[in-house]
Each structure stands twice: as C-alpha cells, then as structure tokens.
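tool_call: predict_structure(chain=1)
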Amino acid sequence: MTSENQDPWNEGTPVPLYVITGDPDSVAKTFNLVTLIATRSEPDPAMQPEHAAILSLCSYPLSVAEVSAYLSLPFSVVTVLLSKLVEEERVEAIAPVPVAAYPERGLLEAVIHGLRKL
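tool_result:
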C-alpha cells in the first residue's frame, strides 16, 4: 500500500506533550496524587491554555489526580505544568494530611470498657 492510498490519521491533532510543558527536559517538583492545588491568582488571557485551565479549575482546592483527569493529561505533564505555576506563585500546593497514628490498644480497651458501662 502506498502512502497516497492511506487515509490521514484524524484524531483531532495530537500535540507532543513537550509542546504543552514547554520543554522536553522540564523537571517537575514532586507531587503526590492527593496533593491539593489551590489557585492564588486569576488566569491571564496571554497565558498558556493549560495553565489558565488549571487556575480556573482550582478556585476550590483539587487534588493533582483530579486536575489530571479534568484536563485529560497524563500525571507527569500536569506535574510539570503545576511546578511552573507554583514557581510563579499562581497556585499553592497543599501537602496531604498524614494518616493519623493508631491509638494504643490499652486506650481503645478503656474506651470500649467505658462505653459498656453506659
């Protein structure tokens, strides 16, 4: 089959991810999937569409995983975009709350004993 007979691939017009991130060697800060992102400024009409979308989405804190899902972009690309926004102080990254330590067994037994007395 010659190239003249093939139909062109038409899935929108896919853009290489390094075009979105701005640099093929961009380094992202370490973000967790559940790190919350909150907007600190309004989108600028001259900014990159993905950055503006993140600022619009995160007017209420969203996790990095949610931002990735809403933008339909891979986690790795979103972390690069967020890194730039954090550097520019346009968004705030809020670390996830650590899992609380389990209470001691003795304390739990005392609480259960106290509840049974009620």
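agent: The first strand starts at residue 36 and ends at 39. Proceeding to next step.
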